[in-house]
Amino acid sequence: MYLTKEEEQILNGEAGETLRQAIGILVALGDIYGADRLIPIKSAQIAGVSYKTIGDAGLEWISDLQGRVKVPAILNPAGMDLEDWERLRISPEFAEKQKLIIQTYAKLGIRCECTCTPYTLEGFDTSYGDHLAWSESSAVSYANSVLGARTNREGGPSALSAALLGKTANYGLHLDENRVPEISIHVEFPLKGSDYGALGYIVGKLAGSKVPVFHLKTTPDVDELKALGAAMAASGAVALYHVEGVTPEIRRLNFEDPEEKITIERKQLDEVYETLNKATREPELITIGCPHCSATELEKIAKLLKGKTVSKELWIFTSRELVKRYPEYIKTIEKSGAKVVCDTCMVVSPATNRYSCVMVNSGKALAYVPGMCGAEAVYGNMEMCIEEAVGGNTAKKEGGSH
């Protein structure tokens, strides 16, 4: 792997121990994956923020680092709402450790908005063709697929290293040849809303780490694309996908349709929704916002909850910036008794571990909640989730149209 004279000096420790470690991580990854050089990046998004997932060892490592990031960098969700952690009954001991993690990242010049949807934030713009070092799986998928930017799914340490250097290793999805469709997915029936999360949950298991191209009867909006990619990244390892006639790369470039083809049938999606009727327990907690809710989704939730009162715990996850930008939606949602939560999500917060059955409208959450929270997960669309929160097991008795 070619290094410039300046990069060699950094690797030799002439710019300090922190940058020596950082470039060492990137060079090691580059050597493993056959990178020819380091390339500049526009921004970084760093995972490894929740104390639940990194523990004391992770906190100790980042505490030893010094310096400032060279590019705009932002954090993934933490383990709690940083301003109102007591509301979800987070322990003071956990909160103290979590605050230390955030303070440590802040000293490195990293923006401490903790969100899995950094592309919704002001001043964190990403354009077609930009090289990035992002690490949250759904954000990586969105950047590659919906925005047409280029990033591998970085680990927390490699994304942080890239932020400190302003560079990443040139391999994987930074290269044209690795962005070509490898498997063709055909869906011959219309899709709507949470169908896309269910579709992603199915296709992720089938595609693994391949690049799929979708041929759909309906045109997904950006929230549906977000849900599709997030689910595939969680149930599989899909970091880039294309949708014929929709996503930017497939519209700009002439890709041949792959020989490998899979047709998805309606009954496969129905089986995902059937998790609600097959659950061994009633949902005790209903969560929406994995990935974090957009402004459009917050507006929809507010309309569904207006004039209603929840009878079960209902948590809505979004970024703090959107909460401040749309106070009228938040006021309507919280008037129902639902909780709007920032900085965290149901997967990385220990708060979820208290519940035995969680209802979600996210294919990503459906894939992650059982393993990371130790709870049974059941699936429904947004309307079904609201019904369950307001009317107990109404959604289960009546089923739900999707």
From TrEMBL:
It is an enzyme of class 4 (lyase). One of its GO terms (biological process) is isoprenoid biosynthetic process. Pathway: Isoprenoid biosynthesis; isopentenyl diphosphate biosynthesis via mevalonate pathway. Residues 1-387 form the Phosphomevalonate dehydratase large subunit-like domain. One of its GO terms (molecular function) is lyase activity. Its EC number is 4.2.1.182. The keyword Repeat does not apply. InterPro entries: PMDh-L-like_dom. It catalyses: (R)-5-phosphomevalonate = (2E)-3-methyl-5-phosphooxypent-2-enoate + H2O. Keywords: Iron, Isoprene biosynthesis, Lyase. Pfam families: AcnX (PF04412). Belongs to the AcnX type II large subunit family. Heterodimer composed of a large subunit (PMDh-L) and a small subunit (PMDh-S). Component of a hydro-lyase that catalyzes the dehydration of mevalonate 5-phosphate (MVA5P) to form trans-anhydromevalonate 5-phosphate (tAHMP). Involved in the archaeal mevalonate (MVA) pathway, which provides fundamental precursors for isoprenoid biosynthesis, such as isopentenyl diphosphate (IPP) and dimethylallyl diphosphate (DMAPP). This is Phosphomevalonate dehydratase large subunit.
